[in-house]
Amino acid sequence: MRSSSYASMSPARRSLRAVLVLALTAATAAALPSARAATPSPTPVARTSALAAEPYMGWSSWSMQSSKYPGLNPDGDYSYLTEKNVLKQADALAARLKPFGYEYVNLDAGWWRDQDWKPGFDAYARQKADPQRFPRGMKAVADHVHGKGLKAGIYLPVGLEKEAYGEGGVPIWNAGDCTTADIVHDDLRTTNGWDSAYKLDFSDPCTQKYVDSQARLFADWGYDFLKLDGVGPGSGKNGDQYDNVADVAAWQKAIAATGRPIHLEVSWSLDIGRAADWKKYSHGWRIDTDVECYCNTLVSWENSVDDRWDDAPGWTRHAGPGGWNDLDSLDVGNGDMDGLTKAERQSYATLWAIAKSPLYTGDDLTKLDPYGLSLLTNREVIALNQGSTPPARPVTPSDPQQVWAAKNADGSYTVALFNLADAPAAVTADWAALGFTGKAAVRDLWNRENLGAHKDKVTQALPAHGSRLFTVTPRGAALTTTGHEAEAAGNTLGGNASVADCSACSGGHKVGNLYAGGSLRFDDVHVDKAGTYQVKVAYVSGDPRSVEVSANGKGPTSHRFPSTGDWGTAETVSVPVTLRAGANTITFDSGSGYAPDIDRIDVPKSS
Q1: Rounded to an integer, what distance in angstroms lies between the CA atom of residue 237 and that of residue 204?
Q2: CB within 8 A of 359, min separation 6: which ones?
């Protein structure tokens, strides 16, 4: 289940999506409340090599459930989710995508609700399969999926659903005298992204027993994956009422008690300030709003596919074996039904691959077109996503033309070029931005061909919203640079700019308060010859921010720096700066807005 659809499924409810996204953006800059004292802290489950060692791959039902595409939901909104349809997709996954590593078949919201969205519960306040959607029950679905050599996934919203409360008198399974009145707060405060459930009160031991009973049910049915949705803080909601870290911790403990390895994924648009908790208690976490457009296609470029280029960089350092940043469904396989151009489909797939996001598609696997199938089954791109290569992040500012990269263990680089503009443009990856000079061998992963040796850079003409994906293997030497600290006494600060402590920064300091005309000028930058230099800028920024960069008082160029995730983490990007031989000044000016804090710059010794 996703952000725009749960509580009532009405058009008015779905219209709240834009409001929530704006609220989340505003909340990012604010300090968030700390975890409640009552949050349980069980010992984290030991990670195994088989569970979340790499991003998971598979299929999810929600994209087709949520779409208005003709024929997908003929019996009303969200009616696609039925046993018949799920098993059809499982069969297609086994036949077409399983050989490439796709293995999970994940049911999303609605399996316990009828076509009018009325829920069903068993005698212990646990969700019960709707007999019309799933006439043989949920175990039969998992058994069929397992029979295909695949894994089965299921879904729940966080909290006690209001309809399950039963005036507080519903007993909890295997929990003595515990009832639903014991497991929620006396004031019946609501929680989750849609306020559709009562918040669980973990100060009462009955509450953990309720979560245990749900986990036991899913384990007995044979499920291998649980998506816990509506989790906060995040999605525009913060504060104790929407702090569900205790729920996620309880689910981890409950799953461990079943003895069954179950991948726990939490959703949606989670607060990055609590990344340590998501990493501690789960195997994956959604970092953004829904990718679906809730329109007559599965997605659209402008709806939120393109948001990920802004939102993913701050999360990059949190991804790794045992837990991954989830960018949501990858809907690139169905052509017209996807709602994207071919160039957009490739860029979508490229970002998911290099960010090490789980690769789960929401497409109709029985109707994959040849181009979509080629995107989903490119073994070199899948190997990049599933292998030991680290997640990539931008090495240039997040301008319309941008370059993302990651250095691999073998010394090569994963390099992606993106043109996010609405018109064709050339994009260049300079080797200096990667940290070396000279020649490098370039392999095109999507086209599976070697492009030979390129000196100093590679440039590609890209269509609107287009991309290229390369493996770059250096043949030259490491780049040598001269460093300049932002806080150095010889620099000039303007406006509100000031030096601040920064434990993550070089030299332990940075220059901040670059807003409303605040500026930082490096006054003594020497180079031996004139030319355009890729100047590496170390900076700190809790959200994407623009800064005007100029040299020697000439006209500035505005660049938008991606978020570093918080105000205590430093990252780098490289910007082109034209310098003259000898002494130069380089200025970072906020203009009328807010700029990132600057830690230092590193200037190559030759252009």
Answers
A1: 25
A2: 55, 56, 57, 58, 102, 330, 352, 353, 376, 382, 385
Closest by alpha carbon to 593, among 536, 532, 541, 537? 541
- Whole-number Å distance between alpha carbons of 209 and 164: 16
Residue 603 token pair: 């200037």
* pTM, 2 dp: 0.92
Pick from 243, 247, 249, 310: which is nearest to 271 by CA? 243
CA distances (Å), 272 to each of 140, 232, 311, in order? 38, 11, 10
Q: Do residues 242 and 29 touch, judged by C-beta distance below 8 A?
A: no
Q: What is the pLDDT at residue 607?
A: 77
| β-pairing verdict for 425-430 and 324-326 | unpaired
Mean pLDDT of the region 397-422: 98
Task: Name beta bridge partners: 492.
Answer: 521
Residue 17 in this model has a pLDDT that exceeds 80: no
* Preceding amide of 309 cis, omega within 30: no
Q: Which domains does the chain have, with CATH numbers?
A: 54-103+112-121+289-390 (no CATH), 158-286 (3.20.20.70), 394-474 (2.60.40.1180), 481-604 (2.60.120.260)
| Cβ count within 10 A of residue 21 | 20
Q: Which residues contact 10 (CB under 8 A, 6 or more apart)?
A: none
Question: Which ranges constitute the DSSP H helices of 365-504?
Answer: 370-376, 379-386, 431-434
Q: What is the mean pLDDT of residues 526-549?
A: 97
Bridge-partner residues for 325, per DSSP?
Answer: 285
- What six digits make up the tokens of 393? 């992040």
Could you count the other beta carbons within 10 Å of the beta carbon of residue 594?
17
Longest dimension (CA), the chain: 82
Token readout for 315 is 């999360």
CA triple 104-110-115, angle to 5 deg: 135
